[in-house]
Design a protein that fits this description.
heterodimer; A: about 400 residues; alpha/beta; Rossmann fold; 2 domains; six-stranded mixed β-sheet; four-stranded parallel β-sheet; 15 helices; B: alpha/beta; TIM Barrel; nine-stranded parallel β-sheet; globular; tryptophan synthase activity (chain A); lyase (chain A)
Chain lengths: ~400, ~270
């Protein structure tokens, strides 16, 4: 293997020997498509005909007036097919898997977004598909399980560990060490062993490329700040990557859950609770105890509820290139309500973290400044989760009534 | 005495050695001690002691659950090392640590290795640490004269086997098949030619693991490998029939072992 995918001290390839050949082949295939202009062309074509690329950059006029500071623009990744930026990565890896001659794909999923995106891609490309999902998440996210199964995927509940996202990743790796000959593992975020962090960022970089161009075209200048929520980090790296060499402040927003001082959060960089470790095949900041055992994390947004963070983001934090903040569950719900009412936009709970931080800072910026918020996904399709987060009484009554109907 | 020499001496008396694997702290730390005692009494030649980790990526469901339970019951790294030291002092067979890299990384790699040496352990198996990432570890192991056990798999090329073996000491751990620990292995001619390839690539003794469940599996390996590794099966046995069932199981795997006088002596004070 030529590169071991290090970003400063973070990254690497910490895998069992049985997977060495598989990772070598993947890294090689990825290098090949990166230098093949035809591949990016094919990728852009499919993203513009099967998904909705380029996604618009919407001016949030009412929010801008409300806060009276910077001009607020929203990058609309929610308008992708399947409703989130996840499609960018999944379609790219699907094309790569086709080139590698694989006939089956596997994926992990937390809330189910990445699982649904992968199942969709598999249906489109004719792959067999298995999605690993923590048992807790299967119970919480029935609508996504329903769609994955309708799309022809097999959904396997993971009953080991804490039964959430990280356990689903472990289980997908266990499948892969058995079936690597015909199977590609579509990892959903910019984490894991090399080349995954680089590869996922590469496919997501389409967000930033468009946003930078749109910003110049719409306002004739670059944004002062760009905000993105950070779970594993793929949507953040996707939008940030185009601005790394510009005088643009990049702000990653983690999940502060019930508060950074409560211990019930998923903030690896903005809190003081993260420390460097090696798990799931890569080195980065993890929420772990002194012995190196991973801790439980908490966030209202399942997509941010993860113990690790992209090694590329850890490196940019170390260099001071990206600032990390955290938004609490309740700040996020407030930001979401305001965005819905003021703009008629429904961000996913994950994306609403970026909104919450941007709203804290927008009033202090001048009217000459523009800021970009990455709306990584749409929230309306997560109606069960969001209605529960808002404790909506009408929704509760509806579910009870439906329950009675089915029970009768 | 260095691990390889200990194994070579034992191999003069029997044609295949038995290595067993347990998860420290499962079902409890005290039970772990009793399991080791039973295994040593039954003629096991060496043992790997797994320090539990929350993300055991190379392990199958039985060992994963054992890791989890052990952690829930408070098997800290310190407690595991204490137990490892206790058995290493009490019983006269080589003991190795098996764990994932993060355990060493968070402890401090050099400190961990020097503590292993101080506590009388002979080597370590770290399945998620390829030599490319393990410079500090390999150097520390050499300094303390401990055996880093390198792993071959059926997907490892001949060239890579040579590369891996250049870092290995003690023995080479040959994973019998794709997949995780504990699933069924087909003991077939495919395995034969794989093991012949391993033998060609390394002059160290060969251990074969993943899926050994019965006497016929051990017999199959005679003449092709030097050490048969029993991992998941004894954990399952303890769960289903209790610690006392382990002795009979181990003795049944290898009649040569049962008749052999070696392996049972406890160290005198």
């Amino acid at each position: 293997m030529l590169s071991r995918g290090y970003y400063g001290e973070f990254g690497g390839v910490f895998i069992p020997e049985i997977l060495t050949t598989t990772f070598d082949e993947l890294a090689e295939a990825f290098e090949k498509v990166k230098s093949d202009p035809g591949f990016w062309q094919e990728y852009s074509h499919i993203m513009s005909t099967y998904s909705c690329r380029p996604t618009p950059l919407s001016f949030a006029e009412n929010l801008t007036r409300h806060f009276g500071g910077a001009h607020i623009y929203i990058k609309r990744e929610d308008l992708n097919h399947t409703g989130a930026h996840k499609a960018n990565n999944v379609m790219g890896q699907g094309l790569l898997a086709k080139r590698m001659g694989k006939s089956r794909v596997i994926a992990e999923t937390g809330a189910g977004q990445h699982g649904v995106a992968t199942a969709t891609m598999a249906a489109r490309f004719g792959f067999k598909c298995t999605v690993y999902m923590g048992e807790m998440d299967v119970e919480r996210q029935r609508p996504n399980v329903f769609w994955m199964e309708r799309l022809g995927a097999e959904v396997i509940p993971v009953i080991d560990g804490t039964r959430i996202l990280k356990d689903a990743i472990n289980e997908a790796f266990r499948d892969w060490v058995t079936n690597m000959d015909d199977t590609h593992y579509v990892l959903g975020t910019a984490c894991g062993p090399h080349p995954f962090p680089e590869m996922v960022s590469y496919f997501q970089s389409i967000i930033g490329k468009e946003a930078r161009e749109q910003s110049l075209k719409n306002e004739g200048k670059l944004p002062a700040r760009v905000y993105a929520c950070v779970g594993g980090g793929s949507n953040a790296l996707g939008i940030f990557s185009a601005f790394l060499d510009d005088r643009v402040e990049l702000v990653g927003v983690e999940a502060a859950g019930e508060g950074l001082d409560t211990g019930r959060h998923a903030s690896r960089l903005a809190s003081n609770d993260g420390s460097v470790g090696v798990a799931q095949g890569y080195k980065t900041y993890f929420l772990q105890d002194r012995d190196g055992q991973m801790k439980e994390t908490h966030s209202v947004a399942a997509g941010l509820d993860y113990v690790g963070i992209s090694p590329i983001l850890a490196w940019h934090r170390e260099k001071g290139r990206i600032r990390f903040e955290a938004a609490t569950d309740s700040e996020v719900l407030d930001a979401m309500s305001l965005t819905i009412k003021k703009e008629g936009l429904i961000p996913a709970l994950e994306s609403a973290h970026a909104f919450a931080q941007a709203f804290k800072e927008a009033p202090d910026l001048s009217a000459d400044d523009i800021i970009l918020i990455n709306q990584s996904g749409r929230g309306d399709k997560d109606i069960f989760t969001i209605a529960e987060a808002f404790e909506d009484p009408g929704w509760k009554a509806f579910i009870q009534k439906k329950g009675n109907e089915y029970g009768a | 005495m260095a691990l390889e020499m200990v194994l070579r001496n034992k191999l003069k008396e029997k044609d295949i050695l038995l290595m067993t694997h347990i998860v420290l702290g499962y079902p409890s730390l005290e039970d772990s001690f009793r399991i080791v005692e039973t295994m040593v009494d039954s003629g096991v030649d060496l043992m790997e002691l797994q320090i539990p980790f929350s993300e055991p990526i190379a392990d199958g469901p039985v060992i994963v659950r054992a890791n989890q339970r052990a952690l829930e019951r408070g098997a800290t790294v310190e407690a595991c090392l204490d137990l490892a030291e206790r058995v290493a002092r009490e019983f006269d067979i080589p003991f190795l640590i098996m764990t994932y890299y993060n355990i060493l990384f968070c402890y401090g790699v050099r400190d961990f290795v020097s503590d292993m040496a101080k506590r009388g352990l002979q080597g370590a198996i770290i399945p998620d640490l390829p030599p490319e990432e393990g410079h500090d570890y390999l150097e520390a192991m050499q300094t303390h004269d401990l055996a880093p056990i390198l792993i071959f798999s059926p997907t490892t090329s001949g060239m890579r086997m040579k590369y891996l073996e250049s870092f290995g000491r003690g023995f080479i751990y040959c994973v019998a098949r794709k997949g995780v620990t504990g699933a069924d292995t087909r003991f077939s001619t495919g395995l034969d030619s794989y093991l012949a390839g391993c033998r060609k690539a390394s002059s160290l003794p060969l251990a074969v693991g993943f899926g050994i469940k019965e006497r016929a599996n051990v017999d199959f390996l005679r003449g092709k490998a030097d050490i048969a590794v029993i991992g998941t099966e004894t954990i399952r046995l303890v769960e289903e029939q209790g610690i006392s069932s382990v002795g009979g199981f181990i003795r049944g795997l290898s009649p040569v072992t049962a008749n052999s006088p070696g392996g049972v002596e406890a160290k005198g004070k």
